[in-house]
Write a structure and sequence with these properties.
- By secondary structure, this protein is of the alpha/beta class.
- It has four domains: 68 residues; 104 residues, PAS domain (Beta-Lactamase); 157 residues, Reverse transcriptase/Diguanylate cyclase domain (Alpha-Beta Plaits), CATH 3.30.70; 230 residues, TIM Barrel (Alpha-Beta Barrel), CATH 3.20.20.
- 44% of the residues lie in helices and 21% in strands.
- The chain has 21 helices and 22 strands.
- The strands form four sheets. Strands 13-14-16-17-18-19-20-21 form an eight-stranded mixed β-barrel.
- The protein is elongated and about 170 Å long.
- The relative contact order is 0.05.
Length: 640
């Protein structure tokens, strides 16, 4: 383009104008005019023209700057609009977890203004049940430059919690201080959808019970829990008897109503943590967890049978069906998986159907026989209690040297209608770990106290000792129940009641047992340790249990003349009793010679056939009136 330097055309490109102005300025600097009056008009016009061009250039530069500033301001506004009004929440956190910066969306999500949000701990907005997870996530924020993501529940002020998906990126601020950029979005609807999808895929549509998919997962978890806790579980396969006939005779709608009702009735029989699942048309599987013994499953199985046989009203129809149940247990001697467990229970269920329906069958035939026999025996004992077939015999305890009667031990007997008088060894072991043992133990205490009242009325005031099982002693309400029974017999001095605990008892919590015994001592009921020396914790029991008396087991007395080791053990036990300031009683003193040797060793108290056999309560008054110690025992010297 050719430019006329004298032209006034302002359409000349600014770049060329700047170039002309700079050239003119250089020329003017090279050829200064000393006097404007000496210039020719053309020269003056040229100067004014150049000045105008320069002015135009400056104005154009200012316009460029103004447009640039407008554009920058617009971009800044767009940035803040994008940041503040973004569809996700943005937060910047310090290394300590404080919110340094947050956009408007984050504030809206958390239900708080931006100004109040800044400076708050992010953990303050995390649901209490997710605090541990958030703590673990936050520990990893600065360990890697890689982005991380997780889901947790956040709190929104004055509104229910919501599920949030959170992404984090570690960064540095302008001061080179570690921060974390956090992006959050509300995924509550997604979670609701996921939960509904899980419900559809894991629960039966008709009964809302777990289906086969969820059952498999629950069973796997239950087997792992059984291994950790050392407690067995039972798998029960239940099939309704004759359910097809209900569908065929009435309708599928009636059948569905029956299934829903039976499901509710069966759930009522189960404990929290057990699982009832529907895996087919009329087939159900039950998982019974944390059984103390496999026998504990039997009452629950019988309750399930009762629940399924309860009549159901449907549209004025009274319908009743039964069920066949197959049972198997875990763990087993061999490794086994969930599928095999279910197959075992299924096979046992078919055996129950073959045996006549409306019953259960245990997969292991031998085990099934044992369980049935024990359960039937327990039920026989329960009926015997209701029929008052149990009674107490009493065996005296005396001071052999003086002949004084120091008390009697109450010993339970079963007057069986067919088998005659049964010793406790023939029935107590069968109910040792069963709740019935507690009921029977309380009966013994109450019966003994009642007998003490009768003896008092006859002028016989005597101490009575009663055996207490480990299970009964360790019950949470043992002390309260003992006080309640004593309150029924206000004439009896609690100090006249002595409770005996076997040294071989399974006292699982020694500290708690000691507290129970001490609580009983506070209202004057004392404890003895029976069969001392036969267990492996003799010294531990002496050290930790606040007992008053130890009873030497009769096994050390019976052969004391033939076994020098028994003499040494007896001597040691007597020394221990003396060291711990305890009374000592020898059991099983069957001959005068036994008593003589025990007296020489320093043991004066005894019970056994050489003194008296256990006797009915009615015989004790006569025996006590005629009893006197053997002459060989009176004034017997003690070995030095």
């Amino acid at each position: 383009m050719i430019v006329d330097e004298n032209s006034n055309d302002v359409s000349i490109p600014p770049k060329n104008l700047r170039w002309q102005a700079e050239r003119t300025a250089r020329e003017n600097m090279d050829h200064p005019r000393e006097n404007l009056e000496t210039m020719l008009p053309e020269e003056i016009g040229q100067i004014f023209h150049e000045l105008r061009v320069h002015q135009i250039e400056l104005e154009m530069q200012n316009e460029e700057l103004r447009q640039t500033q407008i554009e920058l301001d617009a971009q800044r506004e767009r940035y803040f609009d994008l940041y503040d009004l973004a569809p996700v929440g943005y937060c910047t956190l310090s290394e300590e977890g404080f919110i340094l910066e947050a956009n408007l969306t984050a504030a809206i999500l958390l239900g708080i203004t931006q100004s109040k949000l800044v400076g708050r701990l992010m953990s303050g907005f995390v649901h209490k049940e997710d605090q541990n997870n958030y703590y673990l996530y936050r520990k990893n924020f600065f360990r890697s430059d890689e982005k991380s993501s997780f889901e947790l529940r956040l709190l929104r002020e004055n509104n229910p919690p919501f599920w949030a998906h959170i992404m984090t990126t570690a960064a540095k601020n302008s001061d080179n201080i570690s921060i974390v950029r956090l992006v959050m979005s509300d995924i509550t609807e997604k979670k609701i959808y996921e939960n509904e999808l899980n419900r559809i895929t894991q629960y039966d549509a008709l009964t809302n019970l777990p289906n086969r998919v969820l059952l498999s997962d629950r069973l796997s978890q239950g087997m792992a829990q059984s291994q950790r806790h050392g407690l067995p579980l039972a798998v029960v396969y239940l099939d309704l008897d004759g359910f097809k006939e209900i569908n065929d005779t009435h309708s599928h709608e009636v059948g569905d109503h029956v299934l829903i009702t039976l499901s509710d009735q069966m759930k009522q029989t189960l404990r929290e943590g057990d699982t009832l699942a529907r895996i087919g048309g009329d087939e159900f599987v039950i998982i019974l967890l944390d059984l103390k013994t496999i026998e504990d499953a039997i009452p629950m199985i019988i309750h399930l049978l009762d629940a399924t046989s309860t009549p159901i009203n449907v549209d004025h129809l009274l319908l009743q069906i039964t069920a066949s149940l197959g049972v198997t247990f875990y763990p087993q001697a061999q490794n086994i998986d969930t599928d095999l467990l279910l197959r075992q229970a299924d096979q046992a269920m078919y055996q129950a159907k073959l045996a006549g329906r409306n019953r259960y069958h245990v997969f292991d035939t031998q085990q099934d026989t044992i369980l049935r026999e024990r359960y039937e025996f327990i039920e026989t004992i329960r009926k015997a209690m209701q029929s008052s077939e149990f009674l107490l015999y009493y065996q005296p305890k005396v001071n052999m040297r003086t002949g004084a009667i120091i008390g009697v031990e109450a010993l339970i007997r079963w007057q069986h209608p067919e088998n005659g008088l049964l010793q406790p060894a023939m029935f107590l072991p069968m109910i040792e770990d069963h709740p019935l043992s507690i009921e029977l133990g309380e009966w013994v205490i109450n019966t003994a106290l009642t007998q003490m009242e009768l003896w008092q009325n006859q002028g016989l005031d005597i101490h009575v000792s009663v055996n207490v099982s480990a299970r009964q002693l360790q019950e949470n309400n043992f002390v309260n129940r003992l006080q309640e029974i004593l309150a029924i017999h206000p004439k009896i001095n609690p100090a006249h009641l002595d409770l005996e605990v076997l040294e071989t008892s399974k006292l699982e919590d020694m500290n708690r047992t000691a507290q129970i015994i001490q609580s009983c001592r506070e209202f004057n009921v004392l404890f003895s340790l029976d069969d001392f020396g036969t267990g492996y914790s003799s010294l531990t029991y002496l050290q930790r249990l606040p007992i008053a008396t130890i009873k030497i087991d009769q096994s050390f007395i019976r052969d004391m003349f033939n076994n020098t080791n028994d003499i040494a053990i007896l001597s040691g036990i007597i020394s221990l009793a003396t060291a711990f300031h305890l009374n000592i009683i020898a059991e099983g003193v069957e001959t005068i010679e036994h008593g003589e040797l025990l007296l020489k060793m320093g043991c004066e108290y005894a019970q056994g056939y050489a003194i008296a056999r256990p006797m009915p309560a009615s015989e004790l008054p006569h025996w006590s009136a005629t009893w006197h110690s053997h002459s060989e025992w009176i004034n017997q010297l003690v070995f030095e």
